[in-house]
Design a protein that fits this description.
Layout (H helix, E strand, L loop, with lengths): L11 H15 L4 H7 L11 H18 L5 H13 L1 H9 L2 H18 L24 E6 L5 E11 L4 E12 L5 H4 L3 E8 L4 H7 L3 H11 L5 H5 L4 H7 L6 E11 H4 L7 E5 L9 E6 L3 H9 L1 H7 L3 E4 H4 L3
Parallel strand pairs: 5-7
Antiparallel strand pairs: 1-2, 1-6, 2-3, 3-5, 4-5, 4-8
Length: about 325
């Protein structure tokens, strides 16, 4: 699996947990209401449950410490997950010993910080809706990497809520020296994600009309999983889906999110070359990944093939996914 940075808030689950708590808090919810909406419990994340629970617990604890509502229950669970060292072990195995040690230092400092009362409680925030957006929904953006290759993304959604505004980007597979055009991109692919469903095919089709076209395409074009991918997959049925031997999946898009604030210093690095609209049925979230600087965007796209393989993502033709 690919893992994010070693900071407390540095990946999808951490961001989701922290932002969800803060959004409720800013809406006026008290601690009990927040706990009811976001229970402090351990979920089954599969083979790496202890690792993901560490991410969840530490993000949860940071949010509750910032709003002055941390409890002994939360603090004790933080101590418990730190003692398990699931994150340190995984960072060491997936990256190297240096990264594992970095995570340990982050956790040690974090525990010391939240063990003391917060003397500066975060105030509830009031947010204004961003009116002067840099891009529009369905804009196709292109940008150049330092190696002179162009890449391209589709701004599928612009999400505005009380905590932030984000440009929700779907990644295309385009990567060439020539600047892309819409006509060229129509023959490219979108990085996608398959979600296993326990529902019948009829039920899936009712919830996601047209997905049977993707089932047929995937059945004929799926690639076998590598052994490394199988070792990181805890569901045999998902392996069958990934390899095209079963079709009971829901299509989704793993979105890359850039906040309006983060986009400000780098907006001029992107050029709008036209519009492509993902079909409403396929505009479905399959995970999110925040990128806050152009350097991080460049690093991510430079290693997109590796990221796609590690996260067991797939590729579907833009012609099938967009209204063309």
């Amino acid at each position: 699996m690919a893992i994010d940075g070693v900071k407390i808030i540095d990946g999808d689950l951490a961001h989701d947990t922290y932002e969800a708590i803060m959004e409720l808090y800013d809406s006026g919810a008290n601690a009990e209401m927040i706990k009811k909406e976001i229970p402090f419990t351990k979920e089954d994340y599969g083979i790496n449950s202890d690792f993901y629970h560490e991410i969840f617990v530490t993000a949860y604890a940071l949010a509750f410490w910032e709003i002055g509502e941390i409890t002994d229950e939360i603090l004790n669970e933080v101590k418990h997950v730190i003692a398990l060292k699931a994150g340190v072990k995984l960072w060491t195995e997936e990256c190297n010993e240096k990264e594992g040690n970095k995570r340990q230092r982050v956790l040690d400092r974090f525990l010391k910080k939240i063990s003391k009362p917060n003397q500066k409680i975060r105030k509830r925030k009031k947010y204004r809706v961003v009116k002067n957006l840099y891009f529009e929904q369905n804009d196709v953006l292109t940008f150049k990497l330092s190696d002179d290759n162009y890449c391209s993304v589709i701004c599928v959604n612009i999400t505005q809520n009380k905590s932030q505004t984000t440009y929700d980007l779907a990644l295309t597979t385009y990567k060439r020296k020539e600047k892309p055009t819409i006509e060229v991109l129509k023959n490219e692919f979108l990085v996608s994600h398959l979600i296993e469903s326990k529902s019948t095919k009829k039920e899936i089709l009712e919830s996601q009309p047209g997905v049977d076209i993707l089932w047929e395409y995937h059945k004929n074009n799926a690639q076998p999983m590598t052994q490394a991918q199988k070792d990181r997959t805890y569901s045999d049925s998902f392996i069958e889906i990934f390899e095209g031997r079963k079709q009971n999946f829901i299509f989704s898009i793993p979105f890359t999110l850039v906040t309006h604030k983060d986009m400000t210093p780098m907006k001029d690095r992107f050029e709008v070359i036209g519009k492509l609209k993902v079909k409403e049925s396929f505009n479905s979230w399959g995970g999110i990944h925040y990128l806050s600087t152009f350097e991080k965007i460049e690093d991510y796209f430079s290693n997109l093939d590796e990221e796609t393989e590690l996260f067991r993502k797939v590729k579907f033709p833009i012609k099938l996914l967009c209204e063309i």
